[in-house]
Amino acid sequence: MDAIQKIKPLGFPWETSDPFLFCAYHEDLYPEGDDQLGPAASLQGRNLGQDFIEKDGFRMYHGTTVPGFPAHPHRGFETVTIAQKGLVDHSDSLGAAGRFGNGDVQWMTAGSGVQHSEMFPLLNKNDKNPFLLFQIWLNLPKKSKFVAPHFKMLWHEDIPIVTKQDTNGLNTMVTLIAGTLDGVTAPDSAPDSWASDPNNNVAIWTVVMEPSATLTLPTTSQSTSRSLYFFKGGELLTEGFTIPAGHRIITNPSVPLTLVNGATESHFLLLPGNPINEPVVQQGPFVMNTRAEISEAITTYQKTEFGGWPWPKYDHVHAAEKGRFALYPDGNLIEKES
């Protein structure tokens, strides 16, 4: 059997396979920040509120003062937000909040319904504010669609990195956000996640290969879907193919796959997982099993706003002097060094 099933160019958002719904990849070179934690640059010529076209190296997304995504609802799935560079300010309808970034990951179970905002504060007033974020939407099975909303932080200090060295002494660094490699296991996912059962073979790895390094991906069950997203670098040699950056490689996970990197450092995201194999009906921020459940989600949100919005603004950001922190709905506060 062929180790590679298909090679596809990356679009926006990135296509995924069950149990994943999609992956949004955001990379922006934000300028210096201003006193409002937004860009100290003219925003003229932008479609503010819907600014998804790169201009001057960055986008504002749905933000009008600070880039990001003001308050919006979710139900029926999870978001895994990997903030590799820059910061994210989280606020939600449960009264929870946080600031995370520069390698931190937030794992949020929307479950029965939550509103949250995700803003990107530009704290550096004296230099650029580079930003790189992945947000992966991971589906919930029917039995878990209405669990209580929940979020947890995977602080970068607690996320393991496995270094794989090839026969030429060249290294590949694998960051384990979910899953296991060489006896090393990632931090626990959210408790109701499809990823919380190891039998579901869910993994989320970010991978960095040195120039000319070789890596063989471990095998797993043939029933597992597995995609490798080559999002930055030069080219990759594998199975007789020369693959440039900007491609998704859909693999047969039961067959060994050896990757040989080209002349520049290359970056990947790996997403394997066993399919949930249930109907998926999505409308905007709601992901359910039937059209009737989507209608009910919309009606419930219109009536309740999933608890309302306890913050002064829909694009709420935290004070500039705040470091990384997580405030949970029960009042528990965790603060980390910046």
Task: Give structural notes.
The chain has one helix at residues 291-304, and strands spanning 4-9, 14-15, 20-30, 68-74, 77-85, 87-92, 97-101, 104-109, 114-119, 129-139, 150-154, 161-165, 171-178, 180-181, 184-185, 204-209, 214-217, 225-232, 235-238, 241-244, 247-251, 257-261, 266-273, 281-283, 286-288, 325-327, 333-335. With 338 residues, it is mainly beta. The strands form six sheets. Strands 1-21-18-23-16-13-12 form a seven-stranded antiparallel β-sheet, with no helix packed on it. Strand 26 and strand 27 form a beta hairpin.
Name a few traits of the molecule.
338 residues; mainly beta; Jelly Rolls; 7-stranded antiparallel β-sheet; 6-stranded antiparallel β-sheet; 27 strands; 4% helix; 43% strand; globular
Distance between the termini: 48 Å
The named CATH superfamily of the largest domain: Jelly Rolls
Number of helices in the DSSP assignment:
1
Helix content: under 10%
Low-confidence stretches: none
CATH class of the largest domain: Mainly Beta
Total number of strands: 27
Q: Indicate the structural class.
A: mainly beta
Q: Looking at the structure, what is the overall shape?
A: globular
Q: What is the domain total for the residues?
A: 2
CATH architecture of the largest domain: Sandwich
Q: Order of SSEs, N→C?
A: EEEEEEEEEEEEEEEEEEEEEEEEEHEE
Taken as a percent bin, the fraction of beta residues is: 35-45%
CATH topology of the largest domain: Jelly Rolls
Family: Belongs to the pirin family.
InterPro entries: Pirin, Pirin_C_dom, Pirin_N_dom, RmlC-like_jellyroll, RmlC_Cupin_sf
Protein name: Pirin
Pfam families: Pirin, Pirin_C
